UniProtKB/TrEMBL annotation, chain A:
Protein name: Trafficking protein particle complex subunit 2-like protein
InterPro entries: Longin-like_dom_sf, Sedlin, TRAPPC2L
PANTHER family listed in its UniProt record: TRAFFICKING PROTEIN PARTICLE COMPLEX SUBUNIT 2 (PTHR12403)
Primary location group: cytoplasm
A Gene Ontology term for the protein's cellular component: endoplasmic reticulum
Family matches, as Pfam families: Sedlin_N (PF04628)
Keywords from the named record: Cytoplasm, Endoplasmic reticulum, ER-Golgi transport, Golgi apparatus, Transport
Automatic annotation (TrEMBL), chain B:
Location within or outside the cell: Golgi apparatus, cis-Golgi network
Family statement drawn from the similarity comment of this UniProt entry: Belongs to the TRAPP small subunits family. BET3 subfamily.
Pfam family for this entry, one: TRAPP
Highest taxon in the source lineage: Eukaryota
Listed name of the protein: Trafficking protein particle complex subunit 6B
Chief location: Golgi
InterPro entries: NO_sig/Golgi_transp_ligand-bd, TRAPP_component, TRAPPC6/Trs33
Automatic annotation (TrEMBL), chain C:
Region (Disordered) residue spans: 634-659, 883-904, 1161-1213
Domain TRAPPC10 Ig-like: 780-929
Pfam families recorded: Foie-gras_1, Ig_TRAPPC10, TRAPPC10, TRAPPC10_1st
InterPro entries tied to this protein: Ig_TRAPPC10 (IPR056917), TPC11 (IPR021773), TRAPPC10/Trs130 (IPR045126), TRAPPC10/Trs130_C (IPR022233), TRAPPC10/Trs130_N (IPR056913)
Keyword list, A-Z: Golgi apparatus, Transport
Compartment(s) of residence: Golgi apparatus
Annotated source species: Erinaceus europaeus
Record domain TRAPPC10/Trs130 C-terminal: where: 1058-1231
Domain Trafficking protein particle complex subunit: 456-546
Protein name as it appears in the record: Trafficking protein particle complex subunit 10
Domain annotation TRAPPC10/Trs130 N-terminal: ranges: 16-328
Domain of life, per lineage: Eukaryota
């Protein structure tokens, strides 16, 4: 169960970011923004990486005492960042991976939505509700 | 195959639509190419997002170009690019000896003067795809004898 | 993860214990060999084949040799592995049988029995041979016989358990060989023993683990058990395997904790849930932390103890494996998970205890790594350690907060108590770090000791982790730490330090478009700047915040208030302006001019409408809102300019915006083949150079653009208005002064010293001021002026820069053909430049015979005076010469001639007007057109004559016509014109034609020509009584030779016998020309030409049938002489044949006067016509109108032409009046010829 889900543009500005509870929104914004450091690191490292490390899923970006931050980057260099509560130990890598897949799927739908032009903030309700399911769904 | 036919026909209609609009004086004719190209651009962006969803991450530029020539082209035009050449300086030439959008016109030089209309969209398609993969580029095209045609991709070095 | 290969191997804490090998038998002998042995044994590796399909390993064996004692052998059930003797060796160098029998044998037997008793089968007997010894012996047995004896005494069927080592202390090849053989044997046996015993051990262990669900099971016990194994692996330097053991334990424990969290708690776990009492971080310096181990063994370890111990072991092994960075990583994970586990197990932890533990642990790990890696390595692997650094920093910070060390007013008593408790929890410093200056323990103690110390340590740490972050390019993380630092500094009331960090952070957030962090950081920055008293920056930040939607309404209001109030505060230094960018305050939405187009005349007023949308949450009173103008006297064109700057897009949307490619289709024609066939078609890009240029870094939105408030003479102000939130429409009024172009440059809004400035208006907006010359226009109201009746014209005076004073007047120099009419109540109205009526006065007009002067009403500059006057152009007859052309036209044909709309005859009148503003007089031309078109015709009936005048109304008006009259201007006696039409006044509607007919009566022979004038009174039907007496419309014309001289009568008779003509049958045409009168004035001249005696006039007749109903057979024309006498008749006969059946009109018969060439009058021969016509030239009208003849006036087309050479006869048309076609209009019935099958009917 994610506490924060963010979609970040090529140019590193947030296309979409949502978190629960909303009062700690700011904290998550900072966290996600900071996590971009690691994302960049991983992506650039990926340049020289071997084939097997060429998965879109970047794995755990970094853990903090209370949260685990996971990353995912699409081929279009759009980054997904998901923050998970550390106490939620049931969540294994595979669940995270599949959650990212779901995220990616609905992001592609957004991209193909005529009312969305690439680079704008994501307003799509469909996307939003999908994220909601991720946030409440207990894996 | 129906989907393919649909795409081809739709594309034809689009081209003629744009040009008719230009006849009625919305925008001078030069813009038509650009207009079509821009349509292609947006479509390319969307398509590439879909197509690369399940592919591994790309190693480098060349890797991406290969993807465009193989998977992308196959999905859109039901065949691969026949020949990809590059100078390793950011210029790639994609040669398609039997370009789908031209095949339904008569081969050879007949209608040659109209050929470029039917390439503009695809130019945009490539440019849009690449740009969504983070590669800024300019795509131009050339036909000397239909249905064979070349697309030239000039990549903007960042 | 592994350290770079080139790095030196880490310091390895070799374990003191090695696999134990006991030695029995001859001790002294063993000691003599021992050095070599211990040296040789590890030298060569040996392959160790493992059970459970584990990969074989090469091992360098070592062992500690101890003297054999029975108590060394493990009792039943003792699982200890470390102390387990893996091999037992018996040493002897006995070489004679006696000795053997006597002592050695028994000894051996005893030894074996002991072993057997403990069921240990790993033993070896070594026999050492010594040549030296042998020499001084007498009874020598064959070599190795002792060994043989021993073999069959002891080693039943495992003879390899007895080896001979010969001359171990010599060095000879033999010695070498035997050593090698021996060592190999020794190693093999050792390994066999390992395999056997470890295998057994592992089985036992596994069995224990299987029991873990049973109630009595204890983790600690199991821990000890598996660790034993780990130890052994470590002992064998199989660190990998050793590590695996610990990792398994780790995983097992974690799993238990998780399960506990999930609900099913193993009871043994309960023990780990005891409240944390000591938090003296990790201890990694000793290979084995024995006292912690002891705690575990005694089942007294707390969770932290267990974890610490476990990790210290893992750490050690990882270091052995030269994977220091993994240590760092695992450490971070461990610390986090510990915190989590404590939470999960709901272990009660004193506040801050964990922070201490984590802090100490971080530092411990870091120092441990520093201990075993050199700088270069450390720097190269910052990425792995930085996490620990920042974690430590974080923890120290929270400790600081906890112990009240960050507040400026130091810690209070309870803070101190808390601190004391915390320190107590650290216990005493461990001996191994006691004498290291910077030990974590010391650091923490010191840091918590005083505010200053804390600050120092905290800053150091934070700085360190910041530098590390930035050194590995994790700028964002660095910025975040920076922000913490800033917060710290703020708490310490040292904003100047904070500011930089905040600025840096803010910059990156803004640059990457992270709204919330931006807002948050900005708020901090604001506070900071306020403290620093950086008024300018503070105001800017506040205004930005005030317009920030992410803040609550109240906060926004607060910052807005800040700006306003600060503006009201009297400026510290008078005249000092604080310039701030306008965007933060308000946004220029739209800008437009009134009048639109932004062109205004000098002195005119122009309004600039500015739509400014205020971003402030509350109304803001502005002292002044201003527009800075740039004036250029260069007169620019005044095309309309209305600019609406698009609201500036978000910085990021702009970022993507690179110029779009300009694509064009191109066709390439091959130059080779001439027809230029297409070689190729394609698409090219026109602006490649633009696009492929590497993008210049777009300046961040907050790029420091120097704001400069331009000053200059030209500006527009509005004082004291209040900007409401949202859109405000402000319009600037200006009185246009000197002509030129005014460009809008800057927009500023000032409140007190604060001045929000828009340094450049997005699109260049400008307006033009022009000055204009005064002008006079005169144009008719109707589209065309009609002559003869009063017509209205409008006078328009555009005053331009000239001011019309009272008494200024226009002087019209009169034209006699045109009158200017006016009446008393004519009004002149004055309009302002934008067409609203300002005044309206009666017009004063005086007229002398020369000039008419029109007094203008006083009017200011750039106004328009308008008034209307009537003008009357006197109607005059147009030259009527060619109108005789109509003469013979039958009346009915005149009608359809109207079809081709004839144009009105026009006359121009030029009036010169003197205007008060200029010395030159303006000349205006008015064109009047004649409403009527008049034609006349002379009609004959035999000798009776009628004059027909046809008046056509071309105008759109209807007219009332009165007293039409026709009179002979020569007034020749007894010539009367008797009107045959009605005399009453008539209406002539638009586009209508009216005919007047007079009969011409005379007594005496009339004059050859008549000069007539037709006159007609007319008034427009519309208006009653014309303002002035209108002149009648007159039309002059001349009638010539109107008296009939000849009648021509043609007749066609059917061929004799037939009573009707038939097609194709020849009929006879008889033409009779009769002279009606004697010599008359009319043809006097010709007569004179012949001298006195009366020569007969020579006439030429011609029969033409241009409707080709008739075929004329034989000659159709001929000349004959006609005596000048009344009743003289000439007849001509000829044959004609009707070509059609039906009632056919007769062919025309034309009559000409024939003048032979010798006649004087042929003085001007007509070469052209001669060339045209064979033999005779005919003044034949171009149009073949039947009987239409040229009037005398145009009788000599080239008459005035120069004389030509050869003389030749001429034909002269007779004036229309002189010939009367008696048979005109008569028809002959022609029947179709009987034998015709087809009946042709031609209708004419």
């Amino acid at each position: 169960m994610a506490v924060c889900v963010a979609v970040i543009a090529k140019e590193n500005y947030p296309l979409y970011i949502r978190s629960v509870p909303t009062e700690s929104e700011l904290k998550f914004h900072y966290m996600v923004h900071t996590s971009l450091d690691v994302v960049d690191e991983k992506i650039s490292a990926m340049g020289k990486a071997l084939v097997d490390q060429r998965e879109l899923y970047l794995g755990l970006l970094y853990p903090t005492e209370d949260y685990k931050v996971y990353g995912y980057v699409t081929n279009s260099k759009v980054k997904f960042v998901m923050v998970v509560d550390s106490s939620n130990t049931a969540l294994r890598d595979n669940e995270i991976r599949s959650m990212f897949r779901k995220l990616h799927n609905s992001y592609t739908d957004v991209m193909c939505n005529p009312f969305y032009n690439p680079g704008d903030r994501i307003q799509s309700r469909a996307f939003d509700s999908m994220v909601t399911t991720m946030m409440i769904q207990v894996c | 195959m129906a989907d393919e036919a649909l795409f081809l026909l739709l594309h034809n209609e689009m081209v003629s639509g744009v040009y008719q609009a230009a006849e009625q004086g919305e925008g001078e004719n030069g813009r038509c190419i650009t207009k079509l190209e821009n349509m292609g651009f947006r479509v390319g962006q969307g398509l590439i997002e879909r197509f690369t969803k399940d592919t591994a991450r790309f190693k480098d530029e060349l890797d991406i170009m290969k993807f465009v020539c193989k998977d992308f082209w196959t999905t859109v035009f039901k065949k691969q690019i026949d020949n990809l050449r590059t100078n390793h300086q950011g210029i790639y030439v994609l040669q398609d000896n039997k370009f789908r959008l031209l095949t339904q016109m008569s081969a050879g030089k007949q209608y040659l003067e109209h050929a470029s209309k039917y390439l503009a969209f695809t130019c945009g398609l490539i440019r849009g795809g690449l740009s969504n993969l983070g590669i800024k580029s300019i795509v131009t095209a050339e036909v000397s004898s239909m249905p064979a045609c070349k697309f030239q991709v000039m990549i903007q070095k960042l | 993860m592994a350290a770079p290969g080139d790095a030196p191997p880490p310091v390895v804490y070799t374990m003191e214990n090695k696999p134990i090998v006991t030695c029995a038998g001859d001790q002294s002998l063993f000691t003599s060999v021992y050095p070599t042995l211990s040296l040789q044994l590890p030298r060569e590796p040996m392959e160790w084949r493992r059970s459970y399909g584990r990969a074989p390993k090469m091992i360098h064996l070592e062992s500690s040799f101890v003297q054999f004692k029975e108590e060394l052998l493990p009792r039943e059930g003792n699982k200890a592995l470390l102390t387990f003797p893996f091999l037992h060796i018996y040493w002897t160098e006995c070489c004679d049988t006696e000795v053997y029998k006597a002592t050695v044998k028994d000894d051996l037997t005893k030894w074996q029995n002991v072993l057997r008793a403990h069921s240990s089968v790993d033993w070896l007997i070594v026999v050492i041979e010594n040549d030296a010894k042998k020499r001084n012996k007498t009874n020598i047995l064959p070599r190795a016989s002792i060994a043989d004896k021993i073999r069959n005494d002891f080693c039943n069927k495992q003879s390899d358990r007895c080896v001979v080592l010969s001359d171990p202390l010599k060095d000879s090849s033999r010695t070498q060989e035997s050593w090698n053989a021996f060592l190999t044997k020794l190693r093999t046996l050792l390994l066999m023993s390992f395999t056997k015993n470890l295998g057994r051990f592992e089985d036992d262990m596994r069995a224990v683990r299987e029991k873990r669900t049973e109630p009595g099971w204890s983790f600690c016990e199991y821990f000890m058990l598996q660790e034993e194994l780990a130890f052994v692996f470590e002992m064998l330097q199989q660190f990998e395997d050793a590590l695996v053991q610990y990792d398994e334990l780790d995983a097992l424990f974690s799993q238990y904790v998780l399960n506990f969290g999930a609900g099913d708690g193993a009871n043994w776990l309960a023990f780990f849930c005891q409240p944390v009492r000591s938090w003296s971080g990790l201890a990694l310096r000793k290979p084995i932390d024995m006292d912690k181990r002891e705690l575990v063994r005694r089942r007294e370890a707390s969770l932290l103890d267990l974890r610490s111990y476990l990790f210290s072991r893992q750490c050690t092994l990882l270091l052995f494996l030269q994977r220091p960075w993994e240590v760092a990583q695992r450490a971070l994970g461990l610390l986090h998970s510990c915190v989590q586990e404590l939470r999960l197990l709901e272990v009660s932890v004193p506040p801050g205890a964990l922070d201490c533990w984590v802090f100490l642990s971080c530092l411990e790990v870091l120092q441990r790594l520093e201990g075993c890696c050199d700088r270069a390595q450390l720097d190269a692997n910052v990425a792995h350690t930085v996490g620990l650094w920042s974690y430590a920093t974080e923890k120290l910070k929270s400790l600081g907060h906890l112990c009240g060390l960050v507040s400026e007013e130091g810690p209070d008593s309870e803070d101190l108590n808390r601190t004391v408790d915390l320190l107590a929890g650290l216990g005493t410093e461990r001996p191994e770090t006691a004498n290291t200056a910077q030990s974590p323990y010391k650091k923490l103690k010191e840091a918590l000791s005083s505010v200053e110390a804390f600050q120092k340590h905290y800053l150091d740490l934070a700085q360190a982790s910041m530098d590390m972050y930035s050194s590995i390019g994790r700028t964002r993380s660095a910025k975040l730490v920076g922000k913490d630092l800033a917060e710290f500094h703020m708490r310490k009331r040292s904003p100047q330090k904070a500011e930089l960090y905040l600025q840096a952070a803010l910059k990156s957030y803004v640059a990457e478009g992270w709204a919330l962090p931006v807002t948050h950081t900005r708020r901090q920055l604001a506070a900071c700047q306020k403290l620093l008293g950086q008024l300018e920056d503070y105001l800017q930040t506040s205004s930005l915040l005030a317009s920030d939607g992410h803040l609550t309404e109240d906060e926004r209001r607060y910052f807005c208030q800040e700006v306003v109030s600060c503006a009201q505060r009297p400026p510290d230094s008078p005249g000092r302006r604080i310039l701030l960018p306008l965007e933060s305050f308000a946004q220029l939405r739209e800008l437009s001019f009134r009048p639109a187009g932004g062109a205004v005349h000098v002195g005119g007023t122009l309004a600039v409408d500015v739509t400014l949308s205020s971003r402030m949450p509350a109304p803001v009173p502005l002292e002044q809102l201003g527009l800075r103008l740039h004036f250029s006297a260069a007169r620019g064109p005044a095309q309309p300019r209305t600019s609406s700057p698009s609201p500036c897009p978000p910085p990021l949307a702009a970022r993507g915006g690179s110029p779009a490619p300009e694509l064009h289709a191109v066709l390439e024609r091959s130059p080779s083949d001439g027809d230029g066939a297409l070689a190729s078609a394609g698409i090219i890009c026109r602006n490649v150079h633009l696009l492929l240029r590497a993008p210049e870094p777009a300046p961040g939105p907050d790029a420091p653009t120097r704001l400069v408030l331009e000053d200059g003479p030209h500006a527009l102000h509005r004082e004291g208005l209040t900007l409401q939130p949202g859109d405000n429409l402000v319009s600037f009024q200006t009185q246009a002064a000197e002509p030129g172009t005014y460009t809008l440059r800057q927009l500023w809004a000032s409140l007190g010293p604060v001045c929000f400035l828009l340094p450049r208006l997005p699109p260049p907006a400008q307006y033009d001021v022009y000055s204009q010359e005064p002008q006079l226009h005169v144009e008719p109201l109707a589209d065309s002026l009609l002559a003869g009746i009063p017509q209205r014209v409008r006078f328009t005076v555009t005053t331009g820069h000239y001011t019309v004073k009272q008494g200024d007047s226009l002087q019209l120099s009169n034209v006699d053909a045109m009158l200017v009419l006016w009446d008393a109540d004519r009004r002149a109205s004055v309009y302002s430049s934008d067409r609203e009526k300002t005044s309206d006065t009666t017009l004063r007009v005086q007229a002398s015979d020369r000039v008419t002067s029109i007094g203008l009403p006083a009017a200011p500059a750039y106004h328009v005076i308008e008034f209307e006057l009537d003008v009357l152009s006197l109607p005059s007859a147009p030259a009527a010469s060619e109108s005789i052309g109509e003469a013979a036209r039958p009346p009915w044909t005149t009608q359809d001639a109207q079809g081709a709309e004839p144009r009105m005859a026009t006359t121009d009148h030029k009036v010169s007007i003197d205007c008060p503003w200029s010395i030159y007089s303006t000349v205006i031309a008015l064109t009047f057109s004649m409403p009527f078109r008049t034609t006349h015709a002379l009609l004959s009936a035999g000798t009776r004559k009628y004059v027909q005048v046809c008046v056509q109304n071309l105008s759109d008006l209807d007219f009332r016509l009165s007293e039409s009259c026709l009179l002979d201007t020569e007034g020749s006696a007894d010539l009367r014109l008797v009107p045959l039409h009605t005399q009453a006044l008539q209406r002539l509607h638009s586009r209508q034609t009216l005919f007047f007919v007079w009969e011409l009566l005379w007594g005496r022979p009339p004059p050859p020509a008549l000069q007539c004038r037709f006159s007609l009174g007319f008034t427009p039907d519309a208006q009653e009584r014309a303002p002035v007496a209108l002149r009648p419309y007159t039309y002059d014309f001349r009638l010539e030779g109107f008296f009939t001289l000849y009648t021509v009568c043609a007749e066609i008779r059917p061929p004799p016998g037939a009573e009707h003509c038939r097609t194709g049958a020849l009929c006879s045409l008889e033409v009779a020309v009769t002279r009606l009168s004697d010599l008359l004035e009319a043809d006097r001249d010709e007569a004179l030409a012949q001298g006195q005696e009366q020569l007969p006039t020579r006439l030429l007749y011609e029969v033409v049938d241009n409707s080709s109903n008739w075929a004329v057979c034989g000659k159709s024309s001929g000349v004959f002489a006609m005596p000048v006498a009344a009743r003289a008749t000439h007849r001509v006969r000829m044959e004609v044949m009707p070509l059609f059946a039906g009632c056919l009109p007769l062919p025309d018969v034309r009559l000409f006067k024939y003048l032979p060439h010798h006649s004087v009058h042929s003085a001007q021969p007509d070469a052209d016509s001669w060339i045209e016509n064979d033999g005779v030239s005919v003044d034949r009208p171009a149009d073949e109108d039947s009987g239409s003849v040229r009037s005398r006036g145009s009788a000599h087309p080239a008459g005035s032409g120069e004389h030509r050479g050869l003389p030749m006869p001429r034909l002269q048309a007779l004036p229309p009046g002189q010939v009367f076609q008696a048979s005109a209009g008569r028809q002959v019935l022609v029947l179709p010829s009987g034998d015709d099958h087809v009946l042709e009917v031609s209708v004419t």
